[in-house]
Specification:
Blueprint lengths: L1 E6 L12 H7 L4 E6 L12 E2 L9 E2 L1 H14 L4 E11 L2 H7 L4 E6 L15 E4 L9 H12 L32 E2 L2 E2 L9 H19 L1 H10 L5
Parallel strand pairs: 1-2, 1-6, 5-6, 5-7
Antiparallel strand pairs: 3-4, 8-9
Helix pairs in contact: 5-6
This protein binds (phenylmethyl) 1~{H}-pyrazole-4-carboxylate.
């Protein structure tokens, strides 16, 4: 997979080398390139922002450099899926991560200030939010999405196969995990997990997933029950 990032703070992405993305890159599974949006600004001061039309506080990302940045990426990689990360986007979740993991080339355009000039939205394929809160820029959300997507790309996580069971991959929270010791400060590892009976263990784990999801995430529980109405 090829991922391009367009940002006015390229150095934010230096830490990617330290993560699983770094290892995937060195293995040649993933190719991440970070571009300075200011390179697409053609004035002497490399201006990427301007005051809001109609007045008001803060600054707005100018359309020309952002458009040039996107256009440059599209020329370099014609099939690229161009993504904007903003609090106004569609909510990013594990299904979106799975969808993006199918793409051959992704481009993340990171916003700053009060956001993008509205007219730039014409030139992107998708807009995602990572949650209902406001950050100072799109760099961290882009990294969050890259991490969630990249770990689904075959070969990025060393040995784990695509059959791996993750929280959310089936619409339920993960079951509880334990390791040694069998007793920790008076709390025992559930007996079923030490039984060696894998049918019992699977059943117990699935039941714990259901209990946990109902208790902690009524929203996910509702959707899961809708989708599994006819199962029983
Ligand atoms: C951003 C202009 C983007 O704050 C966010 C965000 C919150 N949830 N998802 C994304 O993005 C940063 C700030 C200003 C565009």
């Amino acid at each position: 997979m090829r991922i391009d990032v367009v940002t006015i703070f390229p150095s934010y992405f230096d830490t990617l080398e330290l993560s699983l993305l770094g290892k995937a890159r060195s293995r040649g599974v993933l190719d991440v390139r970070v571009h300075d949006l200011r390179d697409a600004a053609h004035d002497r001061h490399r201006t990427v922002d301007d005051t809001p039309a109609g007045g008001g506080a803060g600054m707005v990302m100018k359309p020309e450099p952002v458009w040039r940045g996107i256009d440059d990426m599209r020329h370099r990689y014609p099939g690229a899926h161009v993504v904007l990360v903003t609090p106004q986007g569609q909510m990013f979740n594990q299904s979106v991560a799975e969808h993006l993991a199918q793409k051959k080339a992704l481009v993340f355009v990171c916003g700053r200030y009060e956001g993008f000039d509205e007219r730039i939205r014409t030139y992107v394929d998708a807009e995602y939010s990572i949650g209902d809160y406001v950050l100072t820029g799109g760099e961290l959300p882009a990294m969050v999405i890259m991490d969630a997507v990249a770990r689904l790309v075959p070969g990025v996580l060393g040995n784990e196969g695509s059959a791996r069971h993750d929280s959310h991959s089936d619409g339920l929270l993960e079951f509880p995990h334990y390791t040694r010791p069998a007793e920790f400060r008076g709390e025992k590892v559930p007996e079923v997990l030490l039984s060696g009976n894998h049918a019992h263990i699977d059943k117990w784990r699935h039941n714990e997933q259901l209990k946990r999801t109902e208790e902690r995430r009524p929203d996910l529980w509702q959707r899961y029950m809708q989708q599994h109405k006819s199962d029983n």
